[in-house]
Specification:
Blueprint (H helix, E strand, L loop, with lengths): L4 H8 L2 H20 L4 H21 L4 H21 L7 H19 L4 H9 L10 H31 L2 H10 L2 H18 L22
Amino acid sequence: MIEREETFAQLLGGRGAALDATLPSIAFVAGWLLTNHSVGWAALIAVAAAVVVGAIRLARGGKIRAVLVGAFVVSIAALVALYTGRAIDFFLVQLLSNAASGLAFVVSWAIRWPLLGVIIGALLGQRTRWRQDPDLLRAYGRATLVYAVQYGIRVLVFGFLWWQGDVVASGIARVALSWPLYVLMLAPTWWVFRATLPSDHPGLRHPRRRLVSGTDPG
């Protein structure tokens, strides 16, 4: 039996992590508005928010590497905005990172190493055993393409708003396209798994051990 959708959602990351990632952006926009469009103060407030979020995550048992990466990304975004003097450039890092992530997901499907399988397999402690299952490999491949759509949506929206120079709308989009978009894309991604895997398949946690030579993951 295939795992419940809630379990699948937990494997890919929970609401808390998605919301935590948006708080520094909200802080940046709020700081920019409250300080008469001061990029310096907005950047400082965003970094401070990232530090607070990181401290809370650590207190709740979060991994220090994830906390450091989050703080690093926010710091880079703040430095970019400070360097250019344009508040909208704070969102340039997220635009580029989403473009890179979307490309990585598509390329991983093309080379038959779908990233969704790599990520979930690692979280389940399976390493690459899922690749020995042709059905699971095919399902991960198709689901990876569907999951990549969210990155394409973000690139289109963030890119347009960056081009328009709309700081406030970019902050709103940062929130709207995090957890809400993730939830929206979860349903079709999970549907692909259900439609691709045979009815007697034991599920994501139990890959079948079969040779995959010549298997098409798409």
